[in-house]
Molybdopterin synthase sulfur carrier subunit
Amino acid sequence: MAIELRVPTILRTYTGGEKAVNGDGDTLAEFIDNVNGAHPGLKERIVEGEPEELRRFVNVYVNDEDVRFTGGLKTGVKDGDVVVVLPAVAGG
């Protein structure tokens, strides 16, 4: 069993239209790197800067827990976990 990334519509151009893709890793950062290997360009839409951190207007959840409160990119992940990426939406 792998870790599943649920991909929002706006990022599906990087996954060939797939709504969900799988990857591996012990931390969220390792998982994102692993998924980016198969789907180049995805990481740059989620992570930025040096040191790397989540983009300001991107929300990431592991099993419905906001990773900003569980360690950010250092959050541990394991087989069977579900990672959800939700870009913030603004408008009026």
